[in-house]
Structures are given as structure tokens and as C-alpha cells.
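Researcher: I've been going back and forth with a colleague about how UBC core domain-containing protein might be arranged in three dimensions. Neither of us has a model we trust, so I'd like an independent prediction. The organism is Pygocentrus nattereri, in case that matters for your notes. Sequence below.
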Amino acid sequence: MKNVASLWMTTTSGPSMRSDSEEQGGPGEQKASPVRPSFGKKQLPSIPKNAVPITKPSSPASAAQATNGTHASYGPFYLEYSLLAEFTLVIKQKLPGIYVQPSYRSALMWFGVIFIRHGLYQDGVFKFTVYIPDNYPDGECPRVVFDIPVFHPLVDPVSGELDVRRVFTKWRRNHNHIWQVLMYARTVFYKINTMEPLNPEAAVLYDKDIQLFKSKVVDSVKLCNSHLFDQPKIDDPYAISFSPWNPAVHEEAKEKMFTHKRRPEDLPKGLQVSGLSWVKPGSTQPFSKEEYPLQT
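Model: Here is an independent structure prediction for UBC core domain-containing protein. You can compare it with whatever you and your colleague have in mind.
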């Protein structure tokens, strides 16, 4: 029994056992705490083996923070969570004429398209990509780059990038949101601003020769629309792309959409039915096509 007790003390205390004098200490000294086994401590869950960090330290301050193992390991996942929260805000805002989808490969890149319904850029369908800085939301404003450069005073004619920094000069955390950037990208096609343009030619024509400006805008809209069916520049399954109408593929989906509307007798009593929310052919007035009369 004596041998068993000594063996147990050796395995639990380890080779660095303090002597009696070290444990007791001198007068007035606190007694040292015994060594605790490692299995008693609370630990964060391990990082997945295939996890790829989204961010890298881009400043001395962030580099200092990265020396902390927890921050360096879990920071990218917090970033992705905040970006998904931003995307939820975009959905809740129900931005008119704007469709956007985060990339499959990186939450820092979103694909989008803007539909312009009236004004100088009417019938324009402009595909774009939102590039979010890797230190979001503490960095600069996200960038908006059109796939095909649009003829516009605030769009760079070479790179296709929209000037968003004139509005979001300093990105403020918890105050600015990506949905605001998207709304601005839509607004510039309805309210033309020629101050400090990225495309000086477009600005001069808008101020001095509006007819020639309109002509170039029409050509730009046609050019952008002609590239809608092109394959995305980025090999990403979530990159927005369009395909020509194919009855064998799309007709069935169209019929399901048209027949999905409930019949009046299937609706709760007392609910008024104003018809389908489509536009009557040849009219620009919304809700102008009614399938059933109003029920009282």
C-alpha cells in the first residue's frame, strides 16, 4: 500500500514537487497554491483545420492584437458574422431595383445588379461588385466597381469604379452600413452630380451638351445590357449571371409563378383583392392589371 500511495503522489504532482519548506514559506508569506491539472480549465473550442482567415493585420495596432492567440484565431469568424449581419440589413431594407448576393468564396466580395426604371439611364441593367476592406468595419468605405464602365460623371471610364468616398469620407462603425452604399449607387443614376468627376468628359457634356450626353448614355446602356449574358469575370458559383430566354427551361417556372396566386375563394373572408401586382401591357402604371374585381 505504501508503494501505491507514493506512485499516486508522483503521477499527480509531477517531478516539480515543492518541498515542505517551499510550501509553508516564511512568516507573513502566503502559501503557494497547489498545481492544478490542465483538464480542469475552461478552453475555447478548437479552430477548424480547414479554416482560412479572412483578415491579416494591416496596421501596427492590429498586428499587436494579433499576438493574442484568441484574437488571431477567432477574429476572421467575427468579421464574417458581422458581414452576414450587414447582408441581413440589406434584405430588410428591400432596396428598390437592387439585387445583391455575397460571394461563395469570400464574404468580403458581394455581387450585385442595379435595374434603372426611369430617367436618363432608363432600361439600364448594371452589374457590379462590392469589395469590402479586410479590416471592416474599422477601415475605409467598401468599393463599388461596375463590370462594364458606365458612362457617368462619377464612374471611372477605365476601371468602372464608382466614387463613393465623396459621400462616405470617413466610414463610421455602427453608423454607416453597406445598404447605404448600395442606395447611393442607385441614386447617382437619377440625380447626376458633376462636381469633381471621375469622368470629366461625361461631366462636361452633361453641363454643356445634354443631347450628346443622352446619346452616349443610350450607347452605354446598350453596351452594358449586351454583356448581361456573358460569363462572370470571377469563377464563383454565386456571381450574378443571366441567360437568354429558353422556353424549355424557363416556361415551366413562369407558369408556376403565374399560377401560384391564390384564388379569391381561397383567401380569408373580408380581405380585399386588388388583382395582380403587374403592369398592364402598354401602361406604366403599377397595379394596373386586375384579374378579379374588388370583393366587399
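Researcher: What would you highlight for our discussion?
Model: I'd start with this: The CA atoms of residues 2 and 137 lie 64 Å apart. After that, consider the following. Confidence is low (pLDDT under 50) at residues 1-33, 51-72, 292-296.
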